[in-house]
Amino acid sequence: MTQMFYRLFKPTQVNLKDEVLSGLTVALALVPEAVAFSLIAGVSPLIGLYTAFIIGLITSIMGGRPGMISGATGAIAVVVVALVVSHGVEYLFAAVVLMGLIQILVGVLKLGKLIRLVPHPVMFGFVNGLAIVIAMAQFAQFKTVNAEGVSEWMSGNPLYIMIGFVVLTMVIIKFLPKLTTAVPSALVAILTVSLIVIFGGIDTRTVGDLASISGGLPEFHLPLVPLNMETLMIILPYSAIMAGVGLIESLLTLTLIDEITETRGHGNKECVAQGVANITTGFFGGMGGCAMIGQSLINVNAGGRSRISGIVASVGLLVFILFLSAYIEMVPMAALVGLMFMVAIGTFEWASLKVFRKVPAHDVLVMVIVTLVTVFLHNLALAVLIGVIISALVFSWENAKRIRARKYVDENGVKHYEMFGPLFFASAMAFGQKFDPINDPEEIIIDFQESRIVDHSGIDAIHKVTERYEKLGKTVYIRHLSSSSRVLLEKAETIINVNYTDDDPSFKIVLDKREKVRS
What we know:
The protein is an alpha/beta fold. The chain has helices spanning about 1-10, 15-40, 45-60, 75-85, 90-110, 120-140, 155-180, 185-200, 205-210, 230-260, 265-285, 295-300, 305-320, 325-330, 335-345, 350-355, 360-375, 380-400, 430, 455-470, 485-490; strands spanning about 70, 145, 150-155, 290, 405-410, 415-425, 445-455, 475-480, 500. Strands 5-6-7-8-9 form a 5-stranded mixed beta sheet. β5 and β6 (about 415-425) form a beta hairpin. Residues about 505-519 have low confidence and may be disordered. It is a multi-pass membrane protein.
C-alpha cells in the first residue's frame, strides 16, 4: 500500500499544478453531465453526482489508465431507465452490484484484450459518432419550458446571450493556449464567463436551473430487494447489458487516450477497477457508470496525465456537493455547453474524412454505419458490435477468395496440390472445387506449407475430398501441415482418416508474446 501511494504521488512523475487544475476543470464539467444523466435514468440528481464521485475516485486509484475519467454516463442511463420505471430504484442498485461482479469476472479472466478485435474503421466510427452525440446533446440547453410545460427553442435576447457566451467560451479555449499554457484554457473560460454573468447581473440559464446539487456524504445502503431467483432473472439482463456497454466504452476510451498520450494502459486492470467501482456505488445508492470520453479528453487536453487529476476531479465534485453547491449552481450553462462543443470538435477524427478515397470501400462503409448507429440509437455497444461483425464478414469474404491451388504431377506419377490461403468455413467450398478425383492418378499429395486449417468447416472440407478419392480407390496424403492444423485433425480422427507423408517436418506456431510458444 505504501509503495502504491509513493508511486501515485511521486513528485518527479507529474506536474502537480497541471494535474490539480485539470482535475478541477473536469469536476466542473462533471456536474451538469451527472445531473442530466440522472434525469435520463429517472433518478434523483444527487444519485448521479454520488455515482460520478465514487466511480471516478475508485477507477482513478485502481484503474488501468491514469488520466482517464469515469462516472455516470448516458450509455448506462439509457439502459437502466426501463428497469427504474418497471421495478423501482432499489432494483437498479441491485443491478449495478451484479454489473460490477460481471465486470470483475471479465477482468479476472483477462478478456479485456478482446478489445484488440475492434478494427480501426470501427474505432473511427465510434469516436465520430460519439463526438456528434456529445454535440447534439448540448442543443437541449437552447430550449426552455413555457407556461404550458411545453419545451420550445429559445428566441430573442435569451438566445443571443446564450450563443454569445458559448462562442466566447469556445474562443477562449481555442486561442488562450497560444498565449499561455500556465492554466487550463477550459478552466479560464468557465471562470471568465461565470464572472461576467455574476457581476454583470446577466439573466441566463445556470447549473442551478437544472437541479440543486446540494447534499451530504453518500450513505451505505443495501438494495431493498428480495434475495431470490426471481430478482436475479429481473436484474440479470440489465446487468449484463450495462456491464457490456460499460466495458466497451471504457476500453475504447482507454485505447483512444493511449493513442493521444502515446502510452499504454491495462485493459484487464481497468475491467476489475470498473467492477469494484460499480459494486461500491451500488451499495451506496448509485446508478452505475463507466469511462467518460468527453471528460477524459478534457482532462488530457488540460494536462492531466496521472491518477492525481482523476482523484482531484472526484474529490472536487464531492466538495462542490458538500460546501460549494451555491457557487457551482451559479456557473452559466453556456460556459459548459461551449466546453462540450470544443470537446466534440476535438473528439471527431477529422483525418477520417481525408481517407475516404484512400481506403477500401468496405472500411468506409463500416465507419459510416458505426457512426450512424451511435448517433441515432445512442447504443455504443450495439454500434461497435455491428461494426465488428461487418468487418469480420468482409474479412472472411476476402480471405475466402484467396484459397487457391498450384497443381503438377511429379516424375513418380503423383499429383501434387500446393494450397495457398486459409481453409475455413468461407473457403471450404472453393477448396473442394480445386480437385479432380476422376481424372487424377492413384496417389495425390495435398501440400499445406502455404495454408492452414482454421476451423471445423476446414476439417470437413478435407474429409469430403479424401472421401471422394477413397470411393475411387485412390490415396490422399497430407504434407507440411502446421501444428495447429494437425491438432485439429487429430481431434477429429473419429470422423476423418488422414495419411501424412514421411518427410513431413514439424512446425512451431508463434503466439502472443506474453503466452508461451508451443510446437
